[in-house]
Design a protein that fits this description.
It is a single chain. The longest helix is centred in the first third of the chain and has 45 residues. This protein has a 3-stranded antiparallel β-sheet, with helices on one face. It contains 2 helices and 3 strands, in the order ααβββ. The chain is of the alpha+beta class. The model has no long low-confidence stretch (mean pLDDT 86). The chain has one domain.
């Protein structure tokens, strides 16, 4: 009987498994980037709504939200009937050119404070 030679099999197994490990790591990092962008959108929308509730101008509200929003995010401010709505959206690429894009975003609503609306307490 001849003995089977197993030399180099560990190297071959590592070479076969390494692309799968790298792809899995890329997917995990891409998902983490999307989650961080979502949290940043929530924080930015809340900050913008707080600024608007205090009676700040639309430019200040946008600047407040944009300072906390992910890079390239859009900020929309709407108001009416004693409330203000701030919406922050961001498009994040997953896996660079290989993957698609994920739209993340958040909306925050706040009641305008009476002093900010010009109503005496």
């Amino acid at each position: 009987m001849r003995r089977r030679d197993d030399r180099g099999s560990a190297t071959l197994e590592l070479a076969v498994a390494m692309p799968a490990v790298v792809l899995l790591l890329a997917v995990v990092l891409g998902a983490a980037d999307v989650v961080v962008a979502q949290v940043d959108c929530v924080d930015a929308a809340r900050a913008g709504a707080r600024a608007a509730a205090r009676g700040e101008t639309a430019a200040v509200v946008r600047a407040s939200a944009q300072s906390l929003a992910p890079a390239g995010a859009s900020v929309a401010v709407r108001g009416g009937a004693g409330t203000v709505v701030v919406e922050v959206t961001s498009r994040r690429a997953v896996l660079g050119r290989l993957g698609g894009a994920v739209l993340t975003g958040a909306t925050a609503r706040a009641a305008v404070e009476p002093a900010a609306a010009g109503v005496a307490p």
